[in-house]
Amino acid sequence: MDAMALLLAATLNAGTVLAIAALGLLINERAGIVNLGAEGMMLVAAIAGFATAVHTGSDVLAFAAGAGAGALLAAAFGALVIWLNTNQYATGLALSLFGAGFSAFVGIRYTQEKLPERMRFEIPGLADVPFIGPAFFRQHPMVYIAIALALGLGWFLYRSRAGLVLRAVGESPESAHALGYPVRRIRLAAVMAGGALCGLAGAYVSIIYTPLWVEGMIAGKGWIALALTTFATWRPARVLLGAYLFGGVTMLQFHLQGQGVEVASQLLTMLPYLATIVVLVLISRNPAWIRANMPASLGKPFFPGS
User: Fold this and answer.
1) Contacts (Cβ under 8 Å, ≥6 apart) of 61
2) In the chain, what are the domain boundaries?
3) Which of 84, 112, 119, 205 sits between 20 and 30 A of 10, alpha carbons compared?
4) CATH 3.30.1450 matches 10-110+136-293
5) For the whole prediction, is pTM greater than 0.85?
């Protein structure tokens, strides 16, 4: 029972990274923009957050630095694809490659740095409940913030006027423009908000999830988060469930190794990526279902007045 509680706790921890990043990408795609640069943004945010934590000792400032770095890179991406109409896929890939190289260069001096002992968080009273307490109520506040973000984003998209406008921009930017909405500025705001959430996820990795800096430490989580948006058919609640599913698969490898299961470590390491491929293959078998849920203008440039 103790081992299962620890596995559930680790699943929530690992899933939080994917959930926050995927929710950011969902905001982008609901506005009609595909950003393949999540991996690069998360890497730059990871080193920005870690460096800030090293120099200030403040997790709040570190998370703010990570979110700011993600938003700044997203703003540059948005300027290119929204105003200069560069190809969204090529620009996103370029951003991912830039982020990997830039973070490796900047992070050279931080590879030997260590953060001070992290504060332990627990909810008084609930944290001591057998099994449930260790599994669910001894988590970092960002775990609960991720859940609140998913619920809040669901309300925003389907219950608020601003969310309706955002979805309208993703479905038919021409119609939204004809009604007088500033489509380009709305898309830029969505891209920057998504970038800030990806930055928050990247900072969480280097500050809480694995409190250190190593080159390439995001290790494909940005790509998994990108796949999650399709897996969840662009719905926040499903993003959260999918993130915990992939988080559980990621943690399962360590759980099996701890239980002494004789399986090659390379096979266990590939489990999250194998699960991603399997899920995408299963979803792609029903393209009509994807088209019914996908924003109609996803990945398509918008030319005002054309």
Assistant:
1) 52, 53
2) 10-110+136-293
3) 112
4) no
5) yes
